[in-house]
């Protein structure tokens, strides 16, 4: 059963990662920086629980906040460029953050043990859950409370004027400006919300894996972040969840029995799904 | 109200607008006509702020517009429609109007949370009035992309009105419309003037331009070749030669 709970944790955290890119994609921006915001949240929350003994909930709050602040800071300069230029700019930023953590040492003695981030070795002993006796199932439920909360928030956004404004900017920037919408304000706000979601996801990720290192937050994770909402479709938040289930539960775990064929099928099935559902698993309205 | 002084806009070697002086007074309906490529839409884009002037100055209610970005010009009271309809096709008719409520009154009336995160009775009432004005009430939940051409034109006009403009720039609003729709558009334009909205009308449908405008400026190769009442312009030899045709 623990296997399924573990899978549930992974799916929950990856859903948050995908949702962080979902809100940015609504404004028509493709950001490869989501893994970096995820990393900021992961390191920040883990350092607070491990080094200072904070409870995980406020630590996640701080991780999420720092993810948002980083995203906001990146948003202002990065969103002056569009399309492929933005992809490259955010990719460069993501790599910069990864290399920062590659060189980040901050260890303190805790009993016999030295704990904290140790450059390329990563950050081990993030043991809040085991130390507090949480079972795998409880951790999964804890993660899904946040996933549910974020999905509900984004669902509400989608029904609010804010959601319509995001989609208006994503659809036609020129018309959006002409009806009085500030592109910078809209895009940076979406980036900031996305950063907060990624930071939260990162904090949860750090604690359920108990070990993080710079290599986890690489271009592959950034690609997954934007692939989920694109494969799932931007009609609503459930598309992203469906895509995470499709990729992590079906393609990665469900096909494990196929051995080496799985890797081959992984790419082929994603291509096939996008051909059969070009607007995503939950395609856009009117498509 | 709107004043263009020696305005020029060059695209490389092309002089799209060349040393134009043009004034629009409060409450007027002014027509801008001329052959394709004469600079009419460029003028709308310059006033709306889509690209900077090469030379000259544009003032709106005595305020220079030069450093004011596009979205803030709308808050001054300048709204526009597009020659090629640019609606938010994947938003509903209602949402298209909702996102366009960005006038200073709308912004100050609504608190941060209510403005961004929910609708209000007054917001709904105003949108209902706009839907009624543009005869789109029965289509309010329809995606804008699924509307007929004429309906899309009406929605674009309603979307511009959602910002409570003082000056409305209409860029070929009758293009592609049938005679009945043009008649309805003419009535709408007159209704808007009766509400105190100043209108600049760019149009090729002469029946509409001659029927509703107080004054017409005629452009050719980016320069103004004539200006006057519809009757004066119609009888101007230079205008006949460059645009209207006939003896």
Key features of this structure:
heterodimer; A: mainly alpha; two-stranded antiparallel sheet; two-stranded antiparallel ribbon; 4 strands; globular; B: 247 residues; alpha/beta; 2 domains; 4-stranded antiparallel β-sheet; 39% helix
Report on the architecture of this protein.
The complex is a heterodimer of chains A (287) and B (247). Chain A is mainly α. Chain A has one domain. Helix content of chain A is 72%, strand content 3%. In chain A, α1 packs across α10 (219-232) and α2 (34-51) runs antiparallel to α3 (56-78). Chain A is globular and about 65 Å long. Chain A starts with a helix and ends in an 11-residue tail after the last helix. Chain B is an alpha/beta fold. Chain B has 2 domains: 1-77 and 165-247, P-loop containing nucleotide triphosphate hydrolases (Rossmann fold), CATH 3.40.50.300; 91-164, no CATH class. In chain B, 39% of the residues lie in helices and 24% in strands. Chain B contains 11 helices and 10 strands. A 6-stranded mixed β-sheet of chain B has the order 6-7-8-3-9-10, sandwiched between helices. In chain B, a hairpin with a 2-residue loop joins β4 (55-60) and β5. The radius of gyration of chain B is 18 Å and the shape is globular. The chains are: A mainly alpha (287), B alpha/beta (247). Chains A and B meet through α7 and α8 of A and α2, α3 and α5 of B.
Main interface by residue count: A-B, 24 and 36 residues
Quote the distance from N terminus to C terminus of chain A: 40 Å
Largest sheet of chain B: 6 strands, mixed
Q: Return the string of H and E elements of chain A.
A: HHHHEEEEHHHHHHHH
Individual helix count of chain B: 11
SS-based class of chain B: alpha/beta
CATH superfamily of the largest domain in chain B: P-loop containing nucleotide triphosphate hydrolases
Strand order of the largest sheet of chain A: 1-2
**How many separate domains make up the residues of chain A?**
1
* Shape estimate of chain A: globular
Nearest-integer average pLDDT of chain B = 88
3D shape of chain B: globular
User: For the report, how would you describe the main beta sheet of chain A?
Assistant: 2 strands, antiparallel
CATH architecture of the largest domain in chain B: 3-Layer(aba) Sandwich
Task: Report the C-alpha radius of gyration of chain B, rounded.
Answer: 18 Å
């Amino acid at each position: 059963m623990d296997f399924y709970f573990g899978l549930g944790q992974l799916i929950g955290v990856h859903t948050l990662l995908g949702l962080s890119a979902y809100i940015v994609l609504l404004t028509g921006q493709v950001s490869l920086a989501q893994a970096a915001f995820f990393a900021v949240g992961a390191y920040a929350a883990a350092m607070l629980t491990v080094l200072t003994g904070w409870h995980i909930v406020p630590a996640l709050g701080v991780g999420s906040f720092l993810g948002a602040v980083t995203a906001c800071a990146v948003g202002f300069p990065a969103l002056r460029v569009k399309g492929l230029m933005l992809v490259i700019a955010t990719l460069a930023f993501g790599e910069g953050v990864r290399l920062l953590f590659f060189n980040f040492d901050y260890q303190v003695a805790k009993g016999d043990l030295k704990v904290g981030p140790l450059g390329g070795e990563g950050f081990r002993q993030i043991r809040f859950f085991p130390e507090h006796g949480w079972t795998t199932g409880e951790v999964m439920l804890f993660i899904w409370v946040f996933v549910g909360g974020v999905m509900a928030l984004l669902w509400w956004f989608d029904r609010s004027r804010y959601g319509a404004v995001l989609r208006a900017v994503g659809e036609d920037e020129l018309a959006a400006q002409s009806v009085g919408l500030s592109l910078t304000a809209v895009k940076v706000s979406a980036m900031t919300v996305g950063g907060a979601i990624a930071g939260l996801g990162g904090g949860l990720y750090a604690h359920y894996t108990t070990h993080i290192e710079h290599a986890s937050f690489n271009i592959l994770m950034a690609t997954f972040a934007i692939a989920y909402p694109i494969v799932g479709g931007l009609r609503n938040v459930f598309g992203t969840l469906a895509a995470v289930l499709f990729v992590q539960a079906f393609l990665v775990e469900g096909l494990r029995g196929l051995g080496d064929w799985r890797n081959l099928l992984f790419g082929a099935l994603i291509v096939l799904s996008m051909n059969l559902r070009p607007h995503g698993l939950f395609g856009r309205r009117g498509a | 109200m709107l004043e263009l002084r020696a305005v020029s806009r060059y695209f490389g070697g092309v002089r799209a607008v060349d040393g134009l002086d043009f004034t629009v007074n409060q409450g007027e309906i002014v027509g801008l006509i001329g052959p394709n490529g004469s600079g009419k839409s460029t003028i709308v884009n310059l006033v709306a702020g889509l690209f900077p002037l090469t030379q000259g100055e544009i003032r709106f209610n005595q305020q220079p517009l030069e450093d004011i970005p596009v979205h803030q010009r709308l808050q001054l009271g300048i709204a526009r429609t597009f020659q090629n309809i640019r609606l938010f096709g994947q938003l509903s008719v209602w949402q298209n109007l909702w996102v366009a409520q960005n006038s200073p009154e709308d912004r100050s009336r609504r608190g941060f949370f209510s403005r961004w995160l929910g609708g209000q009775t007054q917001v709904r009432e105003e949108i209902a009035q706009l839907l009624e004005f543009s005869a789109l009430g029965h289509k309010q939940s329809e995606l804008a992309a699924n509307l007929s051409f004429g309906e899309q034109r009406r929605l674009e006009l309603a979307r511009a009105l959602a910002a409570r403009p003082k000056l409305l720039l209409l860029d070929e609003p009758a293009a592609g419309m049938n005679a009945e729709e043009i008649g309805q558009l003419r009535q709408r334009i007159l209704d808007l003037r009766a509400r105190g909205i100043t209108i600049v009308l760019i149009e090729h449908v002469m029946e509409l331009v001659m029927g509703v405008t107080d004054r017409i400026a005629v452009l050719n190769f980016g320069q103004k070749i004539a200006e006057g009442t519809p009757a004066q312009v119609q009888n101007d030899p230079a205008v006949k030669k460059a645009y209207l045709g006939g003896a």
